[in-house]
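Hello again, I could really use a second opinion on something today. Take your time with it, there's no hurry, and the full record follows here:

___
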Amino acid sequence: MPLTQPRRLSTLLAAGLGAVLSAGLLAQPAQAADAPAQGAYQLNFTNVYAGQAVTIKRVSLTGNEDDRLLGQLVNWGDGSSSYLSATEASRQHNYASPGSYQVSVQLNDLDGNATGTFTGASRVTVAKVAGTYRLSTRTTWRGPSGTLPVSVSLAGVPANVSRVRIGWDDGTQSLVTRTTRTVAHKFAYSGAHKVTVQLFNSAGLSAPLTVGTVNVKLDYTNPTIKITTPSKSNRGTSWKTIRGTSADSGAGARQVAIVVGQVRGSTQYYFNGKKWVKGSVSKSKVRYATVKGGKWSVKIATPKKGYLIIGYAAVDKVGNSSYGKSKQVKLTR
């Protein structure tokens, strides 16, 4: 074919090239599938208490240059799982119950699925909330002056615990160090209060452990008080120690208050705490006595002949007080 016919030559070349392409001689070979993406993971804690959280973190991802990774399925080993997208690198999980749980990760990739690897342990051990915690009482009283205190004793708190939180179920709580031995509390209102304990460390707060329930009862009943009359009540020596009883149907009698005076003929005397002094009986110093086992006693200087006048009242442990009473005794010896 003469080279002087360039137009005809170009037409023939184009037709030949088209035939080659249509025959597939220059077609690209099919692309082989890549290996699935690989992921490495790490747990921030492998030993926790029930109720505490564990975080899994992806520390590396390889083989996902084609962006064909769809997601990551974390099996926490306790019957629950979490799905993470391809771009998510961490997830937190709370373990509710003690036990040993194997954590695993499945990578879902269009090139095929893969199992994640762990840098470090992949099994989480969940311990029960440890230690010994006891209430001082299961019943207490609330009255005009407030509530009688209740305490929780702590023993055997684990060494890896930094703080212990006590919940009083009245809107308040106490946060104490692990070496604390006793924590006292006055409840803000009456009713049944469930007292709980939670342990705190670097993994956070544990689940609450129930210590017990405290029943706070209302007490607005006044105590009663009586003076015990000695067998030889007309003798001054019989009254060197004034004795009596006090009772209370609620919180219990706590204290009695006594004032004593004398009238000898037409002259008044008061007791100043040490001796009898001439003067108005209204100046008599108040003497206090603690009620123990329902009984109380107050010592005074031996009164002389005449009339011994005793004023007395009682108060209970939550601020209820009896009505003031008085007793007059004629002393002849």
